[in-house]
Write a structure and sequence with these properties.
This protein is α/β, with parallel strands linked by helices and 400 residues long. It is built from 18 helices and 13 strands. It has a six-stranded parallel sheet. Strands 9-10-11 form a three-stranded antiparallel sheet, with helices on one face. The longest helix has 24 residues.
Amino acid sequence: MGKKIRALENLKVLDLTRVVAGPYCTAILGDMGAKVIKIEIPGKGDDSRAYDPHVNGESVYFANLNRNKIGITLNLKHPKGKEIFLQLVKKADVVVENFRPGVMDKLGIGYDVLKEVNDQIIYAAVSGFGSYGPYSQRPGYDIISQAMGGLMSVTGPEGSPPTRSGNAMGDILGGMNLAIGILAAVNARHLIGHGQRVDVSLVDSVVASLENAFERYLYSGMLPKRMGNSYASIAPYDSYRAKDGYVIIACGNQKLYEKFCTEVIHMPEMITDKRFATIPLRVKNNKIQKQYIESWTTKHTVDEVVDLALSKGIPAGPIYDLKQIIEDEHISKAREMFLDVDHPVIGKMKVNGNPIKLMDTMPDVQMPAPTLGQDNDYVYGEILKMSKQEIKDLSKNGVI
């Protein structure tokens, strides 16, 4: 067999990002074979290098999001550092950053400068509020995006205060959208003959993710309320108590509902009950119906409920904790959502797998995250053809 082809192996990416949204984006690109050069501040590096947990002094948090990347240090505030960066831009396809809008311009290496050096360059930036608009200069973190993007307003138990999602959803959505934008711009180069800017906002990303919540408000005038695990458009579609935990049952249409009532819980009377006859009525009376359903689910374990429901074609599933996910044969093993990596300092560790499965050019993890400045000699010596003495002088003068 010939060499394995990786989907993005023809792309060179300069990664100036840090923490979550940007590194998540470039990890996606790296998993697909792009040559990602992560550029960090000399002596300090990405802010997330300080985030716990640490093993042997190295951040596992950082190592997860920065696999499949080559790592160098470069002081972009130093004139020589800017000069070197522009040399790298000449050889690159994509520059990715997540500074506050305008920072790169102040450094003298914004898009208007870079496109003069390489008109094919794609300049991709993710920030809290985007590069234009009244809020563009506001600082933006994930929790701000969840707050102002509306996610917190619809998250949490009924009657509870607005609640943050249990993960950095705004950052992850922003990183995903930035990756999509980059790949669209790569294709657009063939159509328009040059690169372009890609501008992604964390807040925009969260707003877009709420999809039909806005439609419900626009066409009813009613603000969506926090509903816990129930759903505003379908019922029964919720979490239910079982003997040993909670289980999800999701009857997404009338046919599934009727089958659930007759073949799973054996309550056919709920099909003709006027309170539950239609989807809108079941949504309205969900609390009442939930009591009937839980009178059955609480007599069974989670596994029993799931197995019985699935045997009748009714969508159902357990609510997993992280331990169960890591041990699950489908998610962890068959779908390879956790991969073993041998890190030079941390040692053997697991990193997240890539959720995008390209069946002929499967994403994979070929390299652990770099230690700070690990690949300076390779990038400056092999790619930019600097001598060992030049590299030594750059280090001595604080440029790298």
